[in-house]
């Protein structure tokens, strides 16, 4: 069974490999009861968002830790991958700007650790 740090490392490396941008790992352990980490990343298109979500789900299946759930529509501007200890949101730039999850979770500047700023 993966610990939280191993989970976080696999999430970030998979998102980076998939060329996701502006990856943010938020520690929400004290803010909610259903997960310890919230990860937010940006995809460049609905196709990129969907393929990145699929790559993340596959990486965890390959590691023997399949996701609890993956939610996405047919032309998704947002894919959610629930890994139990972490919930990953991969969104188009417009969806991310609209929903502003970092603000929703009231994360103050400096509390979220930016793991990558890969530009595609």
What would the keywords be for this entry?
120 residues; alpha+beta; Beta Polymerase, domain 2; six-stranded mixed beta sheet; 6 strands; ribosomal large subunit binding; repressor
Question: Could you explain the architecture of this structure?
Answer:
Interacts with ribosomal protein uL14 (rplN). Keywords: Cytoplasm, Repressor, Translation regulation. This is Ribosomal silencing factor RsfS. With 120 residues, the chain is of the alpha+beta class. The protein has a single domain, classed as Beta Polymerase, domain 2, CATH 3.30.460. 35% of the residues lie in helices and 28% in strands. It contains 4 helices and 6 strands; from the N terminus they run H-E-E-H-E-E-E-H-H-E. The protein has a 6-stranded mixed β-sheet with strand order 3-4-5-2-1-6. Strand 4 and strand 5 form a beta hairpin. Helix 1 packs across helix 2. The longest helix is centred in the middle third of the chain and has 17 residues, at 46-62. The chain is globular, with a radius of gyration of 13 Å.
Summarize the structure.
This protein is an alpha+beta fold. It contains 4 helices and 6 strands.
List the helices and strands and how they pair.
Blueprint (H helix, E strand, L loop, with lengths): L3 H14 L3 E7 L9 E7 L2 H17 L6 E3 L6 E5 L3 E7 H7 L1 H4 L8 E4 L4
Parallel strand pairs: 2-5
Antiparallel strand pairs: 1-2, 1-6, 3-4, 4-5
GO molecular function: ribosomal large subunit binding
InterPro entries: Iojap/RsfS/C7orf30, NT_sf
Subunit structure: Interacts with ribosomal protein uL14 (rplN).
